[in-house]
Specification:
By secondary structure, the protein is mostly helical. The chain has one domain.
Length: about 260
Amino acid sequence: MTLADQGRAVLRICYFNGLLPLWRSPILVIAVFLTPFSFLFFLFVIGRSAQADLLPFGVIGGILFTALFTGNGMLNDCAYLRLERQLQQVFVASPVTSMAYVLGMAMSELAFTLPALALFFAILFLILPISAATFAILLGIVLLTWLLATTLGFLISTLFRQLREIWPIGTVVFSSLAILPPLFYPIRALPDGYRWVAFLSPSTFAGQLADWAAGLSTPGLVTPDWLASPLVDLAGLVGATVLFALAAAFLARWRER
């Protein structure tokens, strides 16, 4: 297959696993949006009672949560199609490359989240007016987070032998990445002297970089001082994304043994 043929295969995979189900079951949009919006609602209530402006952090957290949970969808869909439907074996036997398959599946997961992402960005514009440059930076962070999450999700999906293992492991992995690190709340909420621990999660780099872009972060909140830098956050996010992509390329089981 030529490169153009691989590109068409990517779009077709995106269509059958993303756009078509979304068209047939629009309620899926509500399911994607509901969890991060619930966190946002509680932050709004708590922020008003505590007289703290937590809402901008919650909206950015909702954006990044939605991008991160494309990895959970990728894990579930790829494992289900491989184990239950035997569809991955069909692609293995076809001229479609593993890269085209993974990219098509990743784009289908992104298609599910686009309505929720659009709504969160609309809320962000209402409560925190941002420039076009800031919006472009936030979109770049979302795309890197999506690549990080979906490559990790695909890698994990190839390690399963039984469908019943999918739900608990996927929930633990991506909830740990999306809920525990400082995405929905400012990093200053963590005890001083232990804030560096949050950077053990790659999603913290995405959260801090988004906060820098939106003007929500200030220097001196993290020790050691070198961690409190948008350049470090960018390097950490890009490095983690590349690491997971390489791991998926070389460690994922594309063919059944």
